[in-house]
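Final report, Chapter 2: Outcomes

The project's central promise was a pipeline that accepts a single protein chain and returns its three-dimensional structure in a standardized token representation, suitable for archiving and comparison. That pipeline is now operational. To close this chapter, we reproduce one record exactly as it appears in the project archive, with the input sequence first and the structure output second.
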Amino acid sequence: METKMDILIAGGGLAGLTAAIHLLKSGFPVTVIEKNTYPQHKVCGEYISNEVLPYLEWLGLAIHNAAPSRIQHFQISTAEGHCLNAVLPLGGFGMSRYLLDALLYEHAVGLGCKFIHETVSDIRFNDDEFQVSLGNKQVISAGIVIGAYGKRDGLDQKLSRNFIQKKSPWLAVKAHYEGPFPDDLVALHNFDGGYCGVSKVEDNRINICYLVDYASFKRYKSIPEHRMQVLYKNEHLRKIFENSRMLFDQSLVISQISFDPKNAVSQHVLMIGDTAGLIHPLCGNGMAMAIHSAKLCAESVISYLEGKTSTRKKMETQYEALWKKHFNKRLVTGKIISRILRKKQLSARLLRILIKFPALLQALIKQTHGKPIMAK
């Protein structure tokens, strides 16, 4: 059976829901295809820069009412435990994806968004129209398709995206904990083979999410063994884990996380969030980037549908240019910092330089964060 839609978003995570709300608020009907129901815990750093707060308020989200943690300070340590602290220029807030996605979902439903809880198995484009195939054999035709289906998916293979052709070495592990940790701090602690982000979210919970190279991880029999043998060598991480109790039954784990460049438009599908590109988690700003990319995409689509952008090609070119303008420098900076911190001698040298010249740390933070954004 075939159904006709105007705008279809493949994926109802942070970026997909944000784009849907923006489009709905502007008067355009939207259908979101999302395989999961809400709410769900997801592997995520769960720190969001305040750069997106004005935009979220414009969308109609009362973030303050959800009582997120208020984050103003930043801490980074090397694998040996050498530590440096700084004040975040804009600050941020901590909120779990479990809560944030649920708030976005409820707001989208309230604005009239249609949801189909299914998988997207294929997307094809012919004669200026998309044919989107679902796991239940349903086919939906749409004038606009936005890809927000996450870091890695079978759709990437169907769309012939280059990054999917090679394996990625990264594995991510996340869980919530209870224990002593400053309410206003986001910390990034390095260990041999990876780095770990720690910060508070709502309800006084501590979110601990770390990225590890699979080659170093696979030498150990389990996540707890790897944690004790490797992460505990950083005294800051050892103290956090030893004084905290995990609130999940078990850690959430995802693999094959790729930081290779991705196209913001593939086969005429407009990509947003992690589907368009990932910044290394040590930069602590992936969620804000996902929200910002949804804004840029929604505004490009609106301009096209209102006739201000004359052709689909111009819309796609405009969106690609906006993506590069706002995110390319941040992605490159994140990759460079990641490479330095993964090498013991280089990371120790960098930290010594930053201790001597603290203004450099502020400059690095600004390179991976943006300015406050508002809708047009």
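Archive annotation: The chain has one domain: 2-368.
This record, like all others produced under the grant, will remain available to the consortium after the project formally closes.
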